[in-house]
User: Fold this.
Amino acid sequence: MIDYQSIFIDAYRWATMPLRTAYSRKAAKDRLVPIGLLFYHRISNEWPNAWTMSELDFERQIDWLSANFELISLEETQKRITVTGNDTPAISITFDDGYADNCRRAIPMLLERSIPFTYFVTLDNLVKGTPFQHDVDLGRPLWPNSIETIKVMAQAGVEIGSHTRTHRDLGTIHDEEVLFDEVVVATRELEELIGKRIRYFAFPFGREINLNQRVFAMAQEHGFEGVCSTIHEWNSIGGDAFHLKRFHGDPNFARLRNWLTFDPRLRCSTGATELRSSDLANPASNSGS
Assistant:
């Protein structure tokens, strides 16, 4: 079957490549190249769904990312946003939830290649060994990583992050005690279980409607170094290094490739740079000041 959608996306990407190239060169000269974060959920060849990518597709994406981007940690991302600037295309890789299937091929491959990544896990599913509710609702329970596996990953140098206790939509919760338990208490318990400090938190679902300003304040008050959402934006140099926005690791390779080569329709998070068509058409108009 001919994939007309991918053909159209590739045609659009090539048609706008002069604009993308002009933006990229200007941003690199000013050390203002925005940084992209990707989030994945489950890498497996079995029981495909909207949040599962095949092992072959994942490896294909990692090959392309490795060839075209510097793959960096969240810590390095924040350093470049706030201190050093950035003159090269760079991506940071993350995972949400904590699926056991990821350890069949995806995680070993990243470790073998020494690619940094952050792995956000939901505490109750790990501790109790119960499937995620969103999979149960589909009639296909898929299993989480065990605490023992997460310990091994942490000892291997993987940055483990917190993804609440029960994967609740924090945008709907206003009870301070519930928020504190989901965010702070659950993270402290996870730290004790794996013997490592947890520095980063990721909102479940993570869209604008799922965010909660009290959680951002709570995270800062209790020593988190950053919070991740799934707001579909680049992270601009000089912008907010605490709230890190992420793109979906889309199984449609043409769409992902289009996004990550500076699609002029995509915005940067508020800060020193904005990725706008007007800047691309007249790159000299964006001085980076």
Summary: Residues 271-289 have pLDDT under 50 and may be disordered. The CA atoms of residues 35 and 235 lie 5 Å apart. The longest helix spans residues 176-194. The radius of gyration is 19 Å.
